[in-house]
Amino acid sequence: MTAPAASPRRCTRARLSRSTCDLCVASCPRDAVSLEPLPRIDVARCSGCEACVAACPLDALAGGGPRAQALASRLRAVDNPVIGCTERGGGQGHALVPCLAALGLSDLVGLAAAVPHRIVLNATHCSGCLNERALRGLRARLGALREHGLDQRFELVDSGDLHVKPRQVPRRGLLRALLQESVGFAGRPTPPDAEASAAGRHVPASCVDLESALRRLPSGVARGLRPVTTFRAVVRNDCDACGRCAAICPTGALVRQRGSESRALDFVESLCVGCDACAEFCPSRSIQIEPATIQASQPRERIAERALHQETVA
Question: Could you tell me how far CA 26 lies from the centroid of its own chain?
Answer without folding.
Answer: 15
